[in-house]
C-alpha cells in the first residue's frame, strides 16, 4: 500500500453536500421525507454522480441507490441515507453518502490501488414508512407484505403509492450477493456532544446500542372528577407519575455507564379534564450495548411494577414490545479508522458506542461493519440547526477514504 | 296549604323513566348523545306529555323543551336534561325531568293548590356541543357565534347541521322572562356514594362547586433518546411526573374537607418513543365551593411551579384557563326540601354540596335555585351501570313534588 495521501477533494465534498442541502432546503437544514420530491431529486442526483466514480448506478424497487464496480479486487460497501427527518439537519445521512462517493472517486479511478468502494444510499433509514427499510430489504429482511402495509407515519400515504409515483413500482429489489463485499463502512454525525466537548475529530464506533422498548400499563378506576372523593380514587395517571419518578430514583444505581432510558409518550384514558383516568400507559425505552445491563434493569422495572401493584391502588403491568440486539462493529474496522485518524486527524479519535440506530447495524448481520463519527456542533440532532464545521467535515472525509483504502489493502 | 299528601304516582314516574330508557337503550343504560335520534325522540315524547300536566309545549331553537302554564298564581320552574353522556346511565337527567313533570301533573291540575310548576328540559347539559348550552341560552348567555362554532366533540358534526337535521333551524330561542318564576328546582342522582353509604334518601344541595382549571406547562429540551446522556437531559416529561407527585404530596395539607383535584390529560411533545420530550403539558382541575380554599391551593400550585423552575432543569408555568364560580343554592329551597323530607322520607336527608356541575348553577344566576339529590347505587356516574332503587326514586319524586308545593305556598 502506498503511503501517499489520497487526493480527497475537501472542496468537492463540501460542494456536493451543499448541492444536496439545496434540495428541500428548510431554514439552515432540510425537509426531505422519504419519497418527497427533494428526496427523489437527491436519489437521481446521486445516481448521476456514480459513473464518475467508476460505478454503474441502479435505483432499486425500494428506493435504494447502489453503485457497482467492475474493477478487479476486493470490494468494500459504503454509504448511508439521503432522506431526512421532518424539518431536520442537512448532514444526517448525506454526510455518509458523500464520504462514500468521494472515497469511490479517489480509489476506484486509481489503478495503483487494488479493489473498489461500492456506494449505497439506503432508503428510509429515518423511518417515515418503517424501520430501516432499505438496508433491511438489502439483507433480505423485508417481505412484500410489509411493503403492502407500510404507510407514511406523518401523512398516511401508502408506500406502494409512493413507490408508484416515484416510478419505482415493479422494479426488483437488490439483495446482497454473498461474498461480494469485505464489509460495510458508514460515516455519520455523532448526534451527541462527546467529540465536540473533548476537542476530538473522529469517533471510532465500537457498537450500536440495542433498543429495548416497554409498554407500561396502569389500571385504575375511571370516575367523575367532581363527585369522587380523593380518598377512594384509583387514579391511573397519578400511579403513572409515581412510577415515572420511581424509575428516575432507582435506575441510576443499577445502570451501566452509558445506559439511557426515556419515556417518550404518555396517554391517560379517557383524557378528559373532568374524568379521573381509569387507564394510563407509558412507552418506555432503554438503550445499552450490554444485554446484561438491560437484563438487570428489566428485572428492576418488573420489581418496581410489582411493588407498585402491591402498594395499590392501581395495577401496573410491564410488557416488552421491542427487544434490541446491540450490533458489534468489527475490530478490523476500528483499527482501520483509528490508524487513518492517527495520521490524518493527529490521533484525535475516541472509541465510543453509537446510542442511535444506523443502517450499519443491519449490514452487520451479514458482513463485518464499521462506523466513524464526526463531531456535531452542540450535539444537536434531528433538528434543522444541526451542523458540523467545514474543517471537521473535510477531516472526516480524508479519514474515511483512508480507512477504506486500508480495509481494501487487507 | 292543605296537609293532604299530594297524589304523586310512583308507578307512573317509574313507567315514564322506563319509557325514556327505551330510547337509545345500551346495556342497562342509554346512549343518547345530544341531537341523536333517541334524544330527539325523548324531547318529542316530553313535549307530547306536557299538555296532560296543564302545560303548553315548545321545543325552541336550541333544543330546550319548555312547558308553560296559564294557571294563575306563582310559577316555579323545574327540570333537568334528557340527553346522556356516551354509553351512560338512564337516570342522569331524565330523573329530574320526570320529577318536574310529575310535580306539574299533581299541582297544576289541582285547583285547590295555588300556582303552577313549569317544566324545562335543558339541551346539552352533558356538553356534547358546549358547556351547559341550553340553560345558558335561556339565561341569555349564548351568542349565535357560539352556536356557529359549536361541534359535537365526539363526531365533529357542526351544531348548526344537527339543529337543521332536527328540524329546529330558524326557531327562536326562548329566554327567561324576568319575574315570571319564583325560582328553579332540579333533582338529580347524587353521582357519589354519600347518601347510599349513610342510609339516607335525600341530599339537600347547599351549593354547586366551582371548577378552576389550569394548564401547567413544562419547558425542557427536545433531544435524541439514544445519544443524549442522562446527565445533560432536560426531560419535560420527567419534570411533569415530579410535579404531579409533588401536588399529591402537598395538596392534602392545604385543601378543604371536600376539595377534589384531578389531572385528566397529559401530553408529551413530540410524543415519539425515541425523542426526549421538549415540552409537556397537564390539564389540572380543582373543585371546591369555597373560593378561599381555591385561592390557597392556587398559591401553593404557583409556589410549587416556582420551586420546580428554580430547581431545574425545566421551566414550569401555571396558567388558569377556567375560573369557577360556586353557585349557592337558596336557603328557602333548602328549607322546602328538608321539610318535605321530614314527613315523606322520615327525615333521612343531608345537606351537601354538589361536586358536579348542573343546569341549576346557571339558573341560579338569575333566580333563586335549589337542588335535591337521590342516592346512586355505589355512587356510579357517567357509566351505563348507574342505577337507583325504585323505592328511592319514588321517595325522591314525593319529596320533590311536596317541596314544589311548599315553595309555591311561599
SS elements, strand count of chain A: 17
Give the terminus-to-terminus CA distance of chain A: 10 Å
The whole-angstrom Rg of chain A is 24 Å
Largest sheet of chain A: 9 strands, mixed
Can you describe what's shown?
The structure is a homodimer of 410-residue chains. Chain A is an alpha+beta fold. Chain A has 2 domains: 10-209 and 328-409, Aminopeptidase; 211-322, Alpha-Beta Plaits. Helix content of chain A is 34%, strand content 23%. In chain A, the strands form 4 sheets. In chain A, strands 3, 4, 5, 6, 7, 8, 15, 16 and 17 form a 9-stranded mixed β-sheet that branches. Chain A has a 4-stranded antiparallel β-sheet with strand order 11-13-9-14. The first copy, chain A, has a two-stranded antiparallel sheet with strand order 1-2. The longest helix of chain A is centred in the C-terminal third of the chain and has 21 residues, at 291-311. The radius of gyration of chain A is 24 Å and the shape is globular.
Amino acid at each position: 500500500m502506498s503511503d501517499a495521501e489520497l487526493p480527497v477533494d475537501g472542496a468537492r465534498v463540501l460542494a456536493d453536500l451543499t448541492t444536496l442541502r439545496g434540495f428541500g432546503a428548510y431554514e439552515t437544514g432540510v425537509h426531505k421525507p422519504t419519497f418527497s420530491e427533494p428526496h427523489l431529486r437527491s436519489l437521481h442526483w446521486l445516481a448521476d454522480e456514480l459513473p464518475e466514480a467508476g460505478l454503474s448506478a441502479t435505483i432499486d424497487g425500494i428506493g435504494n441507490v447502489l453503485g457497482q464496480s467492475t474493477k478487479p479486487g476486493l470490494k468494500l460497501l459504503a454509504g448511508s441515507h439521503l432522506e431526512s427527518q421532518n424539518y431536520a439537519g442537512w448532514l444526517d445521512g448525506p454526510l455518509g453518502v458523500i464520504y462514500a462517493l468521494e472515497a469511490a472517486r479517489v480509489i476506484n479511478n486509481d489503478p495503483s490501488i487494488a479493489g473498489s468502494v461500492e456506494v449505497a444510499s439506503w432508503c428510509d433509514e429515518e423511518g417515515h414508512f418503517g424501520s430501516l427499510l432499505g438496508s433491511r430489504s438489502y439483507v433480505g429482511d423485508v417481505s412484500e407484505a410489509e411493503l403492502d402495509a407500510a404507510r407514511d407515519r406523518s401523512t398516511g400515504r401508502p408506500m406502494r403509492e409512493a413507490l408508484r409515483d416515484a416510478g419505482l413500482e415493479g422494479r426488483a429489489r437488490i439483495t446482497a450477493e454473498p461474498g461480494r463485499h469485505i464489509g460495510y463502512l458508514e460515516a455519520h454525525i455523532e448526534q451527541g456532544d462527546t467529540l465536540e466537548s473533548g476537542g476530538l475529530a473522529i469517533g471510532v464506533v465500537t457498537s450500536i446500542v440495542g433498543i429495548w422498548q416497554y409498554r407500561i400499563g396502569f389500571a385504575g378506576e375511571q370516575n367523575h372528577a367532581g363527585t369522587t372523593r380523593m380518598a377512594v380514587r384509583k387514579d391511573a395517571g397519578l400511579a403513572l407519575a409515581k412510577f415515572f419518578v420511581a424509575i428516575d430514583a432507582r435506575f441510576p444505581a443499577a445502570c451501566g455507564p452509558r445506559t439511557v432510558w426515556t419515556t417518550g409518550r404518555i396517554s391517560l384514558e379517557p383524557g378528559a379534564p373532568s374524568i379521573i383516568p381509569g387507564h394510563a400507559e407509558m412507552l418506555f425505552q432503554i438503550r445499552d450495548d450490554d444485554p446484561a445491563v438491560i437484563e438487570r434493569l428489566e428485572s428492576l422495572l418488573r420489581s418496581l411494577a410489582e411493588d407498585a401493584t402491591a402498594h395499590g391502588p392501581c395495577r401496573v403491568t410491564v410488557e416488552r414490545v421491542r427487544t434490541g440486539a446491540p450490533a458489534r462493529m468489527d475490530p478490523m474496522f476500528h483499527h482501520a479508522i483509528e490508524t487513518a485518524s492517527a495520521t490524518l486527524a493527529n490521533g484525535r479519535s475516541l472509541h465510543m458506542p453509537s446510542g442511535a440506530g444506523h443502517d450499519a447495524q443491519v449490514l452487520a448481520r451479514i458482513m463485518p461493519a464499521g462506523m466513524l463519527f464526526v463531531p456535531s456542533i452542540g450535539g444537536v440532532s434531528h433538528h434543522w440547526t444541526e451542523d458540523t464545521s467545514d474543517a471537521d467535515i473535510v477531516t472526516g472525509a480524508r479519514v474515511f477514504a483512508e480507512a477504506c483504502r486500508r480495509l481494501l489493502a487487507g
